[in-house]
Amino acid sequence: MTDDTFEIAGRKFSSRLIIGTGKYKDYAENAAAAEASGAEIVTVAVRRVNLTDRDKPMLVDYVSPEKYTYLPNTAGCFTAEDAIRTLRLAREAGGWDLVKLEVLSDQKTLYPDMAETLKAAELLIKDGFQVMVYCTDDPVYARKLEEVGCCAIMPLGAPIGSGLGIQNPVNIRLIVEQAKVPVLVDAGVGTASDAAIAMELGCDGVLLNTAIAEAKDPIRMARAMKHAVISGREAYLAGRMGRKKYADPSSPLAGLI
Amino acid sequence: MKITVNGEVRELPAPATVDGLLADLGLEPRKIAVERNLEIVPKSAFGSTELNDGDRLEIVQFVGGG
Fold first, then answer.
1. A37 touches chain B (CB under 8 A)
2. Where are the beta strands (DSSP E) in chain A?
3. Could you say which residues from 1 to 40 on chain B have a Cβ atom under 8 Å away from some Cβ of chain A?
4. pLDDT tens by residue, B7-19
5. What integer is the mean pLDDT of A82-110?
6. Are A44 and B62 an interchain contact pair (Cβ–Cβ within 8 Å)?
């Protein structure tokens, strides 16, 4: 078996699971889940420093940017302008240019605004960023985002934080088939089988947060996700059997007594 | 002089630099980023960037997020 590494913007990774760092009970639990998941990339948000309570624990002290590749996001941004402003600050805070762009349209669905997303992606790429982009599962927009130079296309499986699983496998497959850059399902994964399905569709990776953070035992779920992504990937590479309409016995019919 | 930091108005004796303000606030420059009047202040310029009355600053850090 050859090494199955995966490359984003010229950087090689062996884990195909990217996890978020939100919604955990505390940063210690978050760090333990990250460890159990085997992830090498974690998404992080950019927020104001709390000036009144300076003893508040800091993410960097638990989930070290030396150990994990930080992927700053633009969660909560509803315009291209806000997203760009946030990522410029992230680049200054961290000193790296690999980012996750998301421009949302609506509080209830957190559905991405693709016109604004495309605009922001173009501006960020011109500004030297490597953009992994959260998007709808629309193959047309996915292609446009790739054409402007995004380094990874990340369609939603279902709304952010919903845990509803891959709602439109056909579109995910169409996006995978046409893309020349990595495709990751971002958002919607609820449990291990959802992550495996994304990988079996040919995705290069899975990005998830709530499925681990809100599991009853987040550390155990982190481990489950690690295995799910590996087994989904292996099944995709192995090539599944054909679907048949009727039974086909596994034991020989000849020699029956 | 009066400046606004993360939405809160603060009184500060002049002259002051970004470096000085961060020290007053007990913030490690390594872990944060600063925006002054919508312009990023590079870490290398914290010491040389003087603050003026009415400046609006944002000081941000990485937090958990998905």
1. no
2. 6-8, 11-13, 17-19, 41-48, 69-72, 98-101, 130-135, 152-155, 184-186, 205-208
3. 5-8, 25-27, 31-35, 38, 40
4. 999 999 989 999 9
5. 93
6. yes
